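Researcher: Predict the fold of Cytochrome c oxidase subunit 5A, mitochondrial.
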Amino acid sequence: MLRNTLFAIARAGTEAISKRGLALSSTQLSKHKTESDEEFDARYEAFFNRPDIDGWEIRKAMNDLAGMDLIPEPKIVIAALHACRRLNDYALTTRFLETIRDKCGGRVKEIYPYLLQEIRPTLDELGISTPDQLGYDEPELGCKTIEEV
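Model: Structure tokens for Cytochrome c oxidase subunit 5A, mitochondrial follow.
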């Protein structure tokens, strides 16, 4: 009985949709303005430069950046590092730099050194070590060869 009722409701819903004609034109679907790269960078830089930003908001923005198919520009990274420093969250700076390195993928030897070169003055100013300097680039208990076991 319940199954018959559910089928009848579903059938009525599909008939209503086909009668209304939900085929929307492309102009109705494209009301969202496409953001340029400069606007995107300025938005995230301004977000990280807010004086009242808290730890949750920083983590949320960093997570959003990690979920996107991009590597953040050095000016965004610098703003994020300053935001972490204002909150005195050193661990988050390390995790953010690790995330950026992972996002470089197969071109890590080309992109990551460039990024470090661009943010090096900020790292030195804030006293932040890179994950490589902290030894996080290799496993703590990893063995180089089988004979070392």
